[in-house]
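Support request, please re-run this one:
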Amino acid sequence: MGGIEDFMKTFGFPGNDALTIIIICALVLVANFAGGLFTSIIRAFGGPIKPSKLTQRTSFRLALVT
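Re-run finished. Output below.
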């Protein structure tokens, strides 16, 4: 993990915390993925999905922010 430790030192993290930060990032990534998956499953069992207006869609809001 020498390359990761050098990369983290450029952001001010000590080299010995590399594994801890990698584990935390992996857990956050898995939690976000599982949350999105569970949200889709819950919506699927909630009945038919009503089409939303263009201004209420997430993609429109993200495009507006960027």
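The helical segments are 2-9, 18-45, 58-65. The CA atoms of residues 55 and 62 lie 11 Å apart.
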